[in-house]
Design a protein that fits this description.
This protein has 7 helices and 4 strands. By secondary structure, the chain is mostly helical.
Length: 140
């Protein structure tokens, strides 16, 4: 929990962490993380529960579309390629699921983190500064 809070603290200190809906967590079992963030005076208003299971269908489809049209790319990291290869898709009614249970003992954590990030960014949390402003970069 301390390591997670350290990362959040670093992002908060950089000015890139939005005031609301910036920290996405699986709502199950987050008590210790919330406590650690509170101890660092990081507002609970910044925390949002990212629903899992069938409720991630929108994020899964969004990520798939954005990868297909080139508006989102990944770095080609071996761990992401490996976890995508481990993923198993389960159709459920109108939804699709990609879960650890469907993948068996294979790990898919980086892929699930990507889905959670897409779900969180779909909420369009406002930031005080952009990455460009923080690093003195210019847009073209």
């Amino acid at each position: 929990m301390v390591e997670i809070a350290d990362i959040v603290q670093r992002v908060a200190d950089s000015g890139l962490l939005a005031e609301k809906n910036a920290i996405g967590l699986d709502p199950v079992g987050i008590g210790q993380i919330v406590d650690e963030l509170a101890a660092r005076e990081i507002s609970t208003e910044r925390i949002v529960g990212v629903s899992q299971g069938w409720k991630l269908s929108g994020a899964i489809k969004t990520l798939e579309r954005k990868l297909a049209d080139g508006t989102l790319t990944h770095a080609g990291a071996a761990i992401m390629n490996w976890s995508v290869g481990n993923a198993k898709v389960e159709p459920r009614g109108n939804a699709i699921l990609i879960t650890k249970q469907a993948a068996g003992s294979a790990k898919i954590d980086p892929l699930m983190a990507a889905f959670n990030a897409v779900a969180l960014m779909s909420m369009n949390p406002p930031t005080a500064r952009s990455l460009y402003e923080t690093h003195g970069l210019r847009t073209v």
